[in-house]
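Milestone 3.1: sequence recovery, worked example.
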């Protein structure tokens, strides 16, 4: 099997045994007090303490408690060890532990502690200008390819309650190609990685960027422009110009919302993308092979 979801036990083992080995390799802007938020997604929804509120499949936790003016008042995590403990056992180490909106104590429930199917951090940052990142997904490349291959075909988007994209992926054979059942083929993921390094080159040549980074995100890439910009501080207008520049001039198929949205969360490097059992990580070359080069130890 070339691609599969991680089991609950594998996710738990990864954050307990493997992820701690990578914490000293995290980018400098991911600290216990830098990102304004961390986020976790759960495969199984988990209740919070407040009665009559829906169970949560995704939570955000601020790194600082703030006052009425938005000023920082107290840290929610004393150090990255606290952040790591939160990733490992979210309900038992919830920094909102004294709040009625904290995750419910698993010792008081029939269900067990949730495991972190996805681990995220906020691009908006307390300690440096907002982190600029663009997102490129394999599923978007595959959708465009399917549309192009079947541009003259008559597609019934209502059949089996499937969307037009789902029908196109099925009719084109993309969904049946390796990795079987996913909305893209490995060739689409390879093209995404190539786009990632094309984008990095654009940052370095057109923007004279000294500090860039390409991160394999599990089913795509995140490309970072990390130079400080004191003149514009990456304001809304400059981010929109960057989006237009990449999409219109260079036809890079980015998700413009990620670049423009200060509140966006992205996957933490070296976290586990549980849907494909691969490690999110910075990469140095388009020759990177996610199937072989991003395997967690539990697959060895």
């Amino acid at each position: 099997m070339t691609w599969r979801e991680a089991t609950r036990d594998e996710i738990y083992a990864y954050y307990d045994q493997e992820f701690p080995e990578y914490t000293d390799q995290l980018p400098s802007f991911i600290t216990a007090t830098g990102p304004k938020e961390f986020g976790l997604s759960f495969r199984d929804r988990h209740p919070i303490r407040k009665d009559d509120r829906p169970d949560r499949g995704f939570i955000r936790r601020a790194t600082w408690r703030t006052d009425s003016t938005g000023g920082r008042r107290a840290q929610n995590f004393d150090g990255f060890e606290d952040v790591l403990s939160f990733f490992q056992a979210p309900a038992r180490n919830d920094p909102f532990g004294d709040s009625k909106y904290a995750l419910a104590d698993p010792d008081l429930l029939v269900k067990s502690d949730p495991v972190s199917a996805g681990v995220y951090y906020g691009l908006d940052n307390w300690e440096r200008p907002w982190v600029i990142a663009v997102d490129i997904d394999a599923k978007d490349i595959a959708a465009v390819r399917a549309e192009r291959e079947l541009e003259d075909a008559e597609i019934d988007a209502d059949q089996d309650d499937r969307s037009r994209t789902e029908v196109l992926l099925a009719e084109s054979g993309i969904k049946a190609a390796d990795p079987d059942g996913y909305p893209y083929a490995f060739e689409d993921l390879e093209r995404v990685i190539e786009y990632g390094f094309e984008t990095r080159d654009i940052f370095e040549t057109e923007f004279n960027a000294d500090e860039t980074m390409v991160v394999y995100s599990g089913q795509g890439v995140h490309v970072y422009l990390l130079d400080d910009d004191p003149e514009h501080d990456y304001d809304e207008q400059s981010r929109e110009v960057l989006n237009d520049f990449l999409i219109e001039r260079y036809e890079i198929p980015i998700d413009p919302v990620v670049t423009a949205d200060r509140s966006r969360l992205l996957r933490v490097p070296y976290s586990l993308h549980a849907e494909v059992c691969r490690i999110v990580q910075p990469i140095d070359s388009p020759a990177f092979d996610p199937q072989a080069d991003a395997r967690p130890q539990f697959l060895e």
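The mean pLDDT is 91. The first helix runs from residue 8 to 18.
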